[in-house]
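ESCALATION

Customer reports they have been waiting on this structure for their group meeting. Please prioritize. Original submission:
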Amino acid sequence: MLKRRLSMLTFLVAISAAAFAGDKEHGTVITDVMLHVSPDPTSQQLSKVTRGRDIFLMDHTMVDKKPWAHLLAVVDVDVERETARSISGWVPADSVVTTSTPNGDQIIYGEAVDSEGRADQGRKNARDDARRLYYRLYEYFPDSPLAGEALWRATDIQWKQEKADVSRRPSSREMDPSLRVAINDEGAKLVMKKYPHTRWSDLAAYDLIDNKVCGAWKGETKCPEKESEIYEKYAREHPESPKTAEALYNAATRQGALVEMFRANHEQDKSEKARKKGMELAQEIATKFAEGDWKPRALELMYALQQGIPTYNADADRSAK
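Update from on-call: job pushed to the front of the queue and completed.
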């Protein structure tokens, strides 16, 4: 329901702003900037417009040899109340990038990357700034070579934020993934639709797995069995993905867990079958992925499976709540 409300509100905001602005130029701001009543820094302040907000360029002028832009901007959106507020005012023109700005896609992308970095340094709301800027690039410059990556990055930021929120809920420990709040998958599916058979669609497809895995296994074999199948299926369907080795490793570790689970249930045949399957998957990683961390991690897993070293703590898993 929340997803539908958010989508509808976004749509209505865009339609109402576009109707008011007519054929005015579309754009965004690349720094937080204050709207003024008139093109004068000493004039009354109306509202702050933050990075990546959707704006329309209504007019422009020169004051004391400095360019000013007259904007219509959406400055406040309340999803719960299904309301939005647009306001017009003047800002220094050097903070505005529109669809006609030379290298506009590059400029927006650069500011988005910088905002992500600033988030790691503690700047408040910097990741939200980056998410909006990435999406604006995709929206305004769909033919840019950066558009696919920008849409993916916007989606990935949102995905990680929602995943963290979901993980804090009690339902996140439910075995059945249908019993917890699902992460909004509209963005990931849009990436896959708009940019199929690309690095970005592969990454988006990998994120979708989060909604399919168990929150906790609680000692039940059905969870690692299902998850191993999901991860291996992803690897087979996305052999060129940056996540292929990781998916195979996740599939292999699930088999390693099944070795101990079946052994504890006195199902030796199933335990041995899981051990062999885990070895095969780990060997595939070691053979195909010589670069990076996945080969040594796979070899370590193979060693544990060969030596009978448990890779799964059944008691700790069963106590998960």
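Sent to customer with the following note: The beta strands are 25-29, 33-36, 45-49, 55-63, 66-78, 83-92, 96-98.
Escalation resolved.
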